[in-house]
Each structure stands twice: as C-alpha cells, then as structure tokens.
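Deviation from plan, reported transparently: zinc ion complex.
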Amino acid sequence: MKRKRADIASFFNKKNPAEAQENERQDISKSRADQPVQPHPKLFPRTLQGDRRRNFQASWYNVHSWLEYSQIQDSAHCFACRHFGLPNTDSVFTSALGFKNWKKATFRDGGFTKHVKGEAHTHAMVAWKEYEREEKVNASLMSTLTKEHNKQIQESRTSIKSVAEVLLLTATQNISQRGHRETRDADNRGNFLAILDVNANHDTVIKNKLTGPRNEKYTSHQIQNEMLDTLAEIVRSSIINEVKERAVKESFLHFESADRLDAAGLTEKIIQVLERYGLEYKSNLVGQAYDSASVMSGKHSGVQARIKEVAKQAFYVHCNAHSLDLVLVDTVKAVPQAECFFAFLQGLYVWLLCSHEVA
Ligand SMILES: [Zn+2]
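Because the crystal trials were delayed, the predicted structure below was used instead.
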C-alpha cells in the first residue's frame, strides 16, 4: 500500500523533459517584456578549461547588453536571440544549456564576437531595440492619456461640487432656483445661475465648464432635478436611520400626491409610504396628527381610526400647528381692521389664482 502511494505521488510529481529544461533556466529572462538577467555574484564558479580554471566575468555585460547569465546552470545566453530571434535559428546562446566555453568567450573569431557578427543576432537586436522604442512611445502615450483623463475627472468633480453646493444653498435658504429666462443676455437669470457665475469669477475650472460644451455644464433643469433628488435621498435615508434608531424627532420625510381623497384611499397611501421606506408601523408607530377634517380625524372611519386598527399604539392628537392656526384666525376675527385686511388678502389671492383661467 505504501509503495502504491509513493508511485502515485511520483507520477503526479514527475515533470516532462521540456518542463524540467525550462525550470532549469528559470533564473534568466522569461519574456521579451523582461530585461536581460545580469547578476553580479561575489564569485562566479570556476571550471577547468584548457590549461587553467576559468569563469564568467561580469565585465562582459558592459560590452554586450544582450548577455544573460544563469547562476543555476553557470551558462551565458542571448536575450535578443531568445525573445526576438526568428524561429529555427539555432545557436548555443539560445539553447537550453547555453554557452559555457569561457576560454573562447572573448576570442576574435569565436564566442561572443562570432555570435554578434551573425545575421540572426543582428536582426534580433534590431527587433529588440524597435520593441523597446515602441514600448517607450506607448508608455509615454498612455501616461499622457492617463494624466489628461485624471485631469478631466478632477475638473468635472470640482464643477459638479460647485453646482451641488449652489443647489443646496438655494434649497436650504428657500429661495427660487430658476429664472424666467436663463439665456446669457437675460436681465435676471435666476439665483442658481447667478450664484454659479459668482463662483466662476473665482475659479477658472468652473468658468471653463460654464462656457464650454453644452453637455458639460451640468446646469440643465434635468441635472438640477437629478441632483436635488440625490440630495433629498441622502437626507431621507439619514432621517429613516434616525427613526430606526428610535430617536424621537419631528422631520419631514416625503410629499405624495393622493389619487383618492376618501379615508380608505388616504390610509392606504400613508401605509404604502411607510412600507416603501421600511418603517415598521404596526408596533412602532406611537402617534398620528392631522387637522380636524372628519376624513382624517373621524372617530369611526377616519384615517386615524383606520391606521389605529393596524397600529394599535398610534394615538391620534389634533395637529398642533393647525390648532395654532385656528387660534390665530379667531384672534384676528376679533380685530375688525385685521379681519378686513386679511379678507382683502384672501380675495386678492383668489383673484390671482383664477385670473389665468379668465385670460
Ligand atoms: Zn544573439
């Protein structure tokens, strides 16, 4: 049994001759993308050749840039011929064993000199140098392209950041963003573009973007809306996280248009929104507040009663803001001049609201 195991192990560990040969040469270059391997060990092994012991010499690298030395095999190889030579050009410098005849290495008619004079080596050297030149051009082209690309990304980020900051400013200050006319010659282009123009006066990147191609400005109404949506989404998810962490705070979450205005339709809509944002209401909803309209506050079938059916702890209280409104209206009614003034304002509002229909 032991023997069998050893056989299996040796079967799987056995290397084919070509692979073994390649592994023996593993300490010299593997591909044309490498550089000639030219090690400088303290001592090169000495072998008896002719009348004395001789060894490879590191100084030969200075004369022959193509020369590679394998420390494993103690042999010399030609980098150019191995990676850039034509197929079927046999030479000892491309063979697996390599060149080892150190005695003849620097002979005038042998060794390195003879190899260098060969047509195959000359072609290989030309091909190698051409490859290096192309690589250099490609590298410099790539570096230029990368630099330009990174610059464009950085500039677009600066510009988008400025656009987002202006949108955030106008939104938090509650001032309108768009102008009635936004062309360059318009008297008032709106707050958004006017503030961006001020920023552009102090930043050439923003200035170039605003005066550049139309699709790079990021100022269109569509982009504004997309950015506002993104900003709103960030704020909304932060509110939802707060709610989930059970922080008690009053926050505005969402506007939703109602298709049906009856109690059932409005209840369904509110529950849909709570579910959409993953807010657990059946056990965590502890309060609801609306105005006193019976569709909302109705004791038996108003929205509050319907929601309380599914969320048992959602107690209804009359909306505080609405109570204050009722108090103010009653107070104002007690002052004839104020009542007259607010009635006029209301009349004006109704007239303005309806005037476009008349026109
Ligand atoms: Zn060669």
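The CA atoms of residues 7 and 13 lie 10 Å apart. We consider this an acceptable substitute for the interim report.
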